[in-house]
Write the structure tokens for this entry.
Amino acid sequence: MTAESATRRAAERFPTVLWNDSADPAELARSIEFGAVGATCNPVIALTVVKAHLETWRPRIAELAAQFPDASESELGWKVVEELSIGAAKLLEPAFRTSGGRNGRLSLQTDPRLHRNADALVAQAVHFAGLAENIIVKIPATEVGLAAIEEATYRGVSINVTVSFTVAQAVASAEAIERGLDRRAAEGLPDREFGSVVTLMGGRLDDWLKFWAAKHRILIEPGYLEWAGVAALKRAHHVFTERGFRSRVLSAAFRNHLQWSELQGGDLVVSPPFDWQARINENDIEVEDRIDVPVDAQIVETLLAKLPEFRRAYEVDGMRPDEFESFGATVRTLRQFLEADEALDQVVRDVLLPPV
């Protein structure tokens, strides 16, 4: 039994595909060996990669600073993010060609500091899409983000919806992509495989529900909260299939192997960090067609009864778009991405102005 057996077996048996939740070139190369056909980059990931490989990036940042003497620390930091993403996209080109553009995508996230400005998000998305033909651009599932998702799709950008934790966000985002595609068709613009995906961060939903339950002193049967994100992901996939959306659900923000194993069999994407892939393989997690096996009804009913926040996350109409940005998981995640942006600025600052 090889270390790659579980993820390889899954890739061979099911339409469920594996993406790597990092653009680190060394990890991505190993993940491709595990069967990965996609990857992602965001401020947290970029910061992690740069800090882990400072011996490479410190001199490169200095070179960029000399090349662009008027660039701010933030602008230089984003040039690093772009270079990292272009390199990762190159590794995925074979899968992009083989799949006709459905896979082989490198997800590059828009600057979280633009999250209130749809026009700025669209402009950056168009710019990112021009960096490599297999770039897919991440835009947050907020009310402002939905407008940007539709417009960027219309302009020919492949989309990976991010900062998304609920069925309502996933469905609204898929509908925004549909509107963008329909506008293109109505104007006779070229049709192609966009490969767009709608992320649902199941583990971050679990995190928020655990925090909310503890804050409100609500006791839930042990283990039930490990299933909340899985239940939302399964429901979102069911709705996408039922409504014939042209985008796919993507499972991200892993906290347990259920967010991989319980989704096998569906036409969707699972995107664990590399270490989760390694652990899945080391433990030879069983590969079964589980996508249409419902989460235990008692678990779902208990979560619905005890946690209003789970009801908001699980029901298709659980939230309105104007509520998306104030949802707890959204606030926490946007703040983390913004803090990572600031930390990347600090890394650049330390190169430009070394502490004395």
In short: The radius of gyration is 20 Å. DSSP finds 16 helices and eight strands in the chain. The first strand starts at residue 17 and ends at 18. The chain has a mean pLDDT of 96.
